[in-house]
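Pinned message: reference record for Signal recognition particle protein
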Amino acid sequence: MFESLSDRLSGVFDRLTKQGALSDEDVRTALREVRVALLEADVSLSVARDFVAAVQEKATGQAVTKSITPGQQVVKIVHDELVSVLTGDSDPGKLKIDSPPAPILMVGLQGSGKTTTTAKLAKRLTEREGKRVLMASLDVNRPAAMEQLEILGRQIGVDTLPIVRGEDPVAIAKRAKTQASLGGYDVYMLDTAGRLHIDQELIAQAAAVRDAVTPRETLLVVDGLTGQDAVNVATEFDDKIGVSGVILTRMDGDGRGGAALSMRKVTGKPIRFVGLGEKMDAIETFEAERIAGRILG
Ligand code: GDP
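Predicted structure (tokens):
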């Protein structure tokens, strides 16, 4: 679907005859291609621009290693810079869940994959770390969302807090906390309400829940295919609620994952996991190398 960056660059450098060191012009020409590749990978314009400027500074005047072509060399510089920006946490998959019961707050827009991701993480914590997990849906406006979590819980063998109609999100969160303490759970996960767009009520509700339980982790779930939108959502949630990490879903899709780069550059928040499908096992710890390779194509 996309021409890879290496292919683009070898074309560019075939036309150039410079030897010895990468000249200003070589680098500028190459970086135009890099910029296009980033934009095609859904990196936001301002981030692509800044990124290219940073690479330009690093690349200009660098001696060309004998064993590789100038094109390959620029690709390597770009790749290394991508990995450096994308790396946010030495151990992104390690959740802070000491001192049980540890609350994990899941936030994000409706349709981002929040409920699915809550269940995926619960399954992972149960199977890989032997944790006892309790899940609770706080989406009081959408009974179907509450039922969805219950169904997923049954499917993966993880307990959910019994649904009580008419309770507000803070009351549910407190009940989850009590139930988690009394029931000897290690972790309780709160799947907050999602909306199609961020609004004051959504933020106020998530903030009230946060204040009621003081989460050990607040994980923002965003659709990895939404590019610039994903970044705006992350900025807003982080400003208003405070986020300890980001989970990018739908990274199994056709997109090239540029949202990951924009996300890191703009919010500075670590990306902790990526969602890779609808199945309950389709989640992996974030790996900068892998996403860098994908962005470059
Ligand atoms: P919520 O409204 O944010 O809670 O979103 P849901 O968890 O209900 O997910 C919405 C849809 O996206 C469902 O059909 C999920 O199966 C699907 N989904 C969630 N995560 C992924 C993912 O990583 N990849 C793909 N392909 N689909 C996903």
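Pinned by admin. Summary line: Strands lie at 102-108, 133-137, 159-160, 187-191, 217-223, 245-249, 271-275, 283-285.
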